[in-house]
Design brief:
two-stranded antiparallel sheet, 14 helices, about 75% helix, MetI-like_sf
Amino acid sequence: MTNRVKAPATQSGAMLIRTAGRRRNRWSGYLFVGPALLVLMVTSILPIVYVVWMSFQEQTLAGKFEFNGIANYDKLIHDPLYFKSIVNTLTYTVGSAALGLSAAILLAVVLNRNVKGSKFFRILFFLPSVTSEVVTAMMFLWLLDSNFGLMNYMTEQMGFGRINWLLDPTLAMLSVIIVGAWRGASYNTPLFLSAIQNIPKELYEAAAIDGAKSIQQFFRITLPMIVPILSYTIIMAFIGSFQMVAIVDLLTNGGPLDSTMVTLKYIWRQGFEFNNLGYAATLSLGLLPILFFITWIQMRISNRGAA
């Protein structure tokens, strides 16, 4: 009889101990996650909330902010230069991504062959990606200089005369694209090289036995096998293009005739050159649909690769 009475009490006591342990573990988890959440809130969430608040404000001559409703959003809708900057950004993105990724794949294929000095060239081709954008822009500013640039010296030797690389609206965008492609190729070449080296050699041996030439092996084996890393680099190129401002700022300052005015440069100009921080905040929020769309594509590609 005594055992029957004590058993439930013992069980209930054990349950209380387990419950207390679970609560302790739960609070321990919150304690570990708390600092990370605090950093995330301070560095990401609060700035986003502040930008949204600023988008409904107008900065006065005294430096104060006054509520102006949706005036900034109405201005954004009727701002042709903002939409031109988006077109310029997309032009730069497509051009630099296509040229840079093509060059990176070609370099990776060449470096994958056991040519003499391949390790040295791997390091050499990777250097531009770790070089500061400011240093890169200053180097190309000297190369493309209309009077003393190396490119114009070469064109004069070939009989084409001097070319205004950075003063012609069409050539200025082309020059910026080449600079972006040069940096992108240096970063992506090691990625493609690693992907190519992971392809089983048996596939190439079987293709060679069947009579497939090198170009056929590339399109039927190499290219399909590196599609996952290619998708990743394309998405990263799109994201990086919307963050590109230093090269444009130093090479062309958005000109000539706003032909190289990319979106981030335009936002910077409105906020820090014209002291219109409220409108600059609105312009930055206008990029959210585009960035959400790019993120959605990236998530679909990642989920498809995981499946």
